[in-house]
Design a protein that fits this description.
The chain is an alpha/beta fold. The chain has four domains: about 130 residues, Rossmann fold; about 170 residues, P-loop containing nucleotide triphosphate hydrolases (Rossmann fold, 3-Layer(aba) Sandwich), CATH 3.40.50.300; about 80 residues, Orthogonal Bundle (Helicase, Ruva Protein, domain 3); about 60 residues, no CATH class. About 50% of the residues lie in helices and about 15% in strands. A five-stranded parallel β-sheet has the order 2-1-3-4-5, with helices on both faces. Helix 15 crosses helix 17, helix 19 packs across helix 20 and helix 20 packs across helix 21. The longest helix has 19 residues. The chain starts with a helix and ends with a helix.
């Protein structure tokens, strides 16, 4: 079936906004796309394109990289500020190849080199508009993520749209929701799938070791560096680097990571020269990075460099219709690993687990399944066994940062109570000056006067 036959009515045809300050290029691209069955709107500058966005609401934007005034990179950033998932195809001259590489990481779905080849343009447009459904991508994403819920279907549709490009992806979600599984699925559905996927938990490695882990080091760079060591950026060259718990990265390293994302070069500890790397970055955190930026705990420029396409993993409680599938999936996996016959949950056990709160999300569910499958003597896992496993499972283990925060807050509450809400006395007890204590109280949202009121009420 010809493409024109799939979208016969004008109102059904995808709208494409073409942006270029060269009138001949605008006319040529518009002719090619109109004749193929698309609707096109032209703009001869970045500001003109932005004024058309809300009016035309294009399904795709094609823009030149180099234009007078607002260039293509700036235009793309503004488009993605309004809609992070709006597909953008960039046009670039051969002399601008380094900029083209940067553009793919910052959000361009594809970069086409001038002079533009008509067939390549049409193919990339169809691909960007999701007119060619990739069975391989559907299979890969489905293999990593078990679901039937609408919320997960929408998330995976977004993941599939960004998988084909080098666009930087940011995954947010509570601990245990499966952020790494999503990152791995995006990698394996991408053109980088034959190259390494390497993950690192930025909050689990001491600050003094994390720089060496990420960027590598030269022999003798520090005490204990008896040999030269390649960092994870170089190890992942050509593939994907997954930076988990990026919100826990120390500020000193955030500066160096930003430089790598800007220049696509890494400098190992103790080295005098930087080395080029070709790595796609997928980052994740359970923290609220916007709040961390406001608190000065995370660099704003790095936040926007990482936050190109945000994806949010829902909690298990937000996708309850997936719980029976997940329980069955992990029972199968348990049986396959041990070469045993698969066990099943009794209907009342399945109903109970489906309604459970699951604060630890999928990670907690896996632990419950493993415990039930290992301890159940028969093939049917009863309700009592499911209840015991869920009760014994601690759920969501706090990170060190969360535990420290909770302990500090508890200590401050105790000090304020002992000092009857008097900040000067509380500061002396805590061994801090009043300014430092006020900052801590503000960080923990504690008001001294509340404790004076509390004591009066108790009297």
């Amino acid at each position: 079936m010809a493409f024109e036959e799939t979208i016969p009515e004008k109102e059904q045809r995808p709208r494409i906004l073409i942006v270029d300050d060269d009138q001949d290029t605008l006319a040529l691209l518009a002719t090619w796309l109109d004749n193929t069955g698309f609707q096109t709107v032209s703009a001869n500058s970045g500001p003109a394109a932005l004024s058309q966005l809300s009016l035309v609401q294009p399904h795709l934007v094609i823009t030149d990289l180099v234009m007078e005034g607002m260039d293509g990179m700036t235009l793309m950033a503004e488009i993605h500020r309004q809609n992070p998932l709006k597909p953008v195809i960039m046009l670039s001259g051969r002399a601008k190849i380094p900029d083209a590489v940067k553009a793919t990481h910052l959000g361009s779905l594809a970069v086409l080199t001038k002079p533009i080849d008509k067939d390549e343009l049409i193919e990339q447009v169809k691909k960007a508009l999701h007119l060619h459904i990739s069975d391989r991508q559907e299979a890969v994403l489905g293999r990593h993520i078990v679901y039937r819920s609408t919320v997960m279907g929408e998330l995976l549709e977004h993941a599939r749209l960004v998988a084909d490009s080098d666009i930087t992806v940011f995954i947010n979600g509570h601990t245990g929701t499966g952020k790494e599984a999503l990152a791995k699925a995006i990698h394996e559905a991408s053109p980088r799938r034959e190259k390494p996927f390497i993950g690192v938990n930025c909050g689990a490695i001491p600050e003094q070791l994390l720089e060496s882990e990420l960027f590598g080091h030269e022999k003798g760079a520090f005490t204990g560096a008896v040999t030269r060591r390649e960092g994870l950026f170089q190890a992942a060259d050509g593939g994907t680097l997954f930076l988990d718990e990026i919100g826990d990265m120390p500020l000193s390293l955030q500066v160096k990571l930003l430089r790598v994302l800007q220049d696509f070069e890494v400098r190992p500890v103790g080295a005098v020269r930087s080395k080029p790397v070709n790595v796609r970055i997928v980052s994740a955190t359970h923290n609220d990075l916007e709040e961390a930026v406001k608190a000065g705990e995370f660099r704003e420029d790095l936040y926007y460099r990482l936050h190109v396409v945000p994806l949010t993993m829902p909690s298990l409680a937000e996708r309850r219709e997936d719980i029976p599938l997940l329980l069955d999936h992990f029972l199968r996996a348990h049986a396959r690993r041990r070469d045993l016959k698969r066990k099943h949950f009794a209907p009342d056990a399945m109903e109970y687990l489906t309604a459970a709160p699951w604060p630890g999300n999928v990670r907690q569910l896996v632990n419950v399944v493993e415990q039930c499958a290992a301890l159940s003597k028969g093939q049917i896992i009863p309700l009592a066994m499911a209840k015991r496993a869920l009760r014994d499972e601690p759920g969501q283990l706090q990170t060190l940062k969360e535990a420290t925060h909770a302990l500090e807050r508890k200590y401050l509450i105790t000090v304020l109570r002992l000092a009857n809400g008097n900040v000067a006395n509380a500061a002396r007890m805590a061994g801090r000056n009043r300014t430092e204590l006020y900052k801590l109280l503000s960080h923990h949202q504690l008001t001294p006067s509340d404790f004076r009121t509390l004591d009066k009420a108790e009297d």
